[in-house]
Design brief:
With 374 residues, the protein is α+β, with helices and mostly antiparallel strands. The chain has 12 helices and 22 strands. Pathway: Amine and polyamine biosynthesis; carnitine biosynthesis.
């Protein structure tokens, strides 16, 4: 097999895939019960806009798009997008954050259609589009899904009948690439058919997706069961369900496998949706899911074979979630490479119970999608 470790999707994904995310809005609170009668909200003239705001001593509060948001004044000043504060060509800040008074407050605030204008003590004017504020507010981020996914087990994936993409279409057309990326981003796996069994064509495919990451194995490499490296993947032993490079401090995000030649029997490809397995843990044992997001484990890779001498350690929780919306974005799990559960990090069965639960969820036959015998 040729195996590639790719670090991230190329920026072209943003151009090819623009997805609208449907978000559930917060329930609108009763403001009369939240604030004393002396506080006055500034309402827009247009009822359809449904926008209101309140100036507090140290922050600005905005009610818009069924969301109540709070912005510190210093944050608003620091995120000014005027030409003198922000370079729109490089998308980099020009304003020196340290120069902003931490106690800054606007002199005036006004609304023009869907744009808020803040005039600061030095006369500088900052304008904010209401939708931009929703998108970049903490409250808005809590409602937003970063990466929509379709969680699957064997039955769900088979019934979905996700089509493979032909190599020529993938390589030569935007539609072919888009179809592949949509499958990959939604399901976590995608297949390209009719790829010529050569290193050159495999590399072209990989570079069509993203940049190829340099690792201790190189950018791309061939492996077979000759134990040329100190890893079970280089033997004839079966590989259990796992995520690769868990011993990297930053595990690889995309892997490309291409079987160039097969002799004998075996070689079945076993795939499991780790996000589906993690969701099963969340639904059945939320306290164990929480532990898996907090207790760090040490994955370790040690090899002393031939001229290969490597010792790599990656430390982190099994499940990684965004702190603002608890969305799962990374799984680091390889039973064979977990070095030890450090007693300084966990006590008693704190680490073993959730790890056992996730292992069981991973290993259920109904969750496994098998890509035939090769």
């Amino acid at each position: 097999m040729w195996c590639f470790r790719l670090s991230h999707l190329h920026g072209r994904l943003q151009n090819l895939l623009s997805r609208g995310v449907t978000c559930s809005a917060f329930q609108q609170p009763n403001f009369k019960s939240l604030f004393p009668l002396a506080i006055r909200w500034h309402h827009t003239a247009s009822k359809s806009l449904n926008c209101a705001w309140q100036q507090h001593e140290d922050h600005f509060e905005l009610q818009y798009a069924n969301t109540v948001m709070r912005f510190d004044y210093v944050w608003l000043r620091d995120h000014c997008r005027s030409a003198s504060c922000y370079n729109s060509k490089t998308h980099q800040r020009s304003l020196d954050t340290a120069s902003v008074d931490l106690c800054i407050k606007p002199k005036t605030i006004r609304l023009d259609e869907t744009t808020l204008f803040f005039t600061w003590p030095d006369g500088h004017v900052t304008k904010y589009d209401l939708d931009w504020l929703v998108k970049n507010s903490y409250e808005g981020q809590k409602q937003k899904v970063i990466q929509p996914r379709i969680l699957w087990n064997a039955e769900i994936y088979q019934q979905a009948q996700v089509p493979s993409v032909d190599f020529q279409s993938f390589l030569e057309t935007n539609d072919g690439l888009k179809n592949f990326l949509q499958n990959f981003l939604l399901y976590g796996i995608a297949f390209v058919e009719n790829v010529p069994p050569t290193q050159e064509h495999t590399e072209k495919l990989a570079e069509r997706i993203s940049l190829i990451r340099e690792t201790i194995y190189g950018r791309m490499w061939y492996f077979t069961s000759d134990f040329s490296r100190g890893d079970t993947a280089y033997t004839k032993l079966a590989l259990d369900r796992h995520t690769d490079t868990a011993y990297f401090q930053e595990p690889c995000g995309i892997q490309v496998f291409h079987c160039l030649k097969h002799e004998g029997t075996g070689g079945r490809t076993l795939l499991v949706d780790g996000f589906y397995a993690a969701d099963q843990v969340l639904q059945k044992a939320p306290e164990e899911f929480e532990l898996l997001t907090k207790v760090p484990l040490r994955h370790e890779y040690i090899e002393n074979v031939g001229e290969c001498h490597n010792h790599m350690i990656g430390v982190g929780p099994v499940l990684n979630t965004y702190p603002w919306n608890k969305e799962l974005y990374l799984i680091r799990f390889s039973k064979e490479k977990i070095y030890m559960v450090n007693r300084q990090w966990s006590s008693s069965l704190q680490s073993y119970i959730p790890k056992k639960t996730l292992t069981y969820s991973h290993s259920r036959t109904s969750n496994e999608y098998r890509k035939g015998l090769i």
